Amino acid sequence: xxxxxxxxxxxxxxxxxxxxxxxxxxxxxxxxxxxxxxxxxxxxxxxxxxxxxxxxxxxxxxxxxxxxxxxxxxxxxxxxxxxxxxxxxxxxxxxxxxxxxxxxxxxxxxxxxxxxxxxxxxxxxxxxxxxxxxxxxxxxxxxxxxxxxxxxxxxxxxxxxxxxxxxxxxxxxxxxxxxxxxxxxxxxxxxxxxxxxxxxxxxxxxxxx
Length: 209
What we know:
By secondary structure, the chain is an alpha/beta fold. The chain has one domain (2-208): 3-Layer(aba) Sandwich (Rossmann fold), CATH 3.40.50. 33% of the residues lie in helices and 19% in strands. It has 9 helices and 8 strands. It has helices at residues 13-28, 40-43, 54-59, 65-70, 118-123, 135-142, 163-170, 182-189, 199-205; strands spanning 2-5, 31-35, 73-74, 79-82, 107-112, 126-131, 150-155, 174-179. The protein has an 8-stranded mixed β-sheet with strand order 3-4-2-5-1-6-7-8, with helices on both faces. Strand 3 (73-74) and strand 4 (79-82) form a beta hairpin.
């Protein structure tokens, strides 16, 4: 299970999490992405799923892992999405129940601006803070009470802050640098990300797989 989250909107967490899930599906034959943020279908060029989703499941007092599994919708022949649903609130401790939902294949969770609980961070394969080399984002990251296990840096041309600066502020290693490229934005805007990952993005993701 791969947990992806951020401290500031606009960091690129959903695009990164979706691209990671696509790469894992290609490598392993099947993968799922759990959409706590609500933007994954749009990033993957899908119609907005109707019905219950993971947030509804988390807000329910009776959470059965199989029920969550049945909420999956297909983004590609290999990648499944568990959509966000409509519930607006749930207990943070309910997030730990997501650990029982892997079903034998890779699962990526797009937490958005939510933070995985510490027990969940320790139990996942990867706990990655997704951040741009932005002063405002790093100010927020510096105030975290506990550190992520790794940082995915969304690199932008013209920024003064480096990967070394990010590591120093966050207190965690930068495990990958993903270039914020126009081709990725065009692919998302056209609804084509799920069809074919831009070559540079696919290559930069390989260091994480």
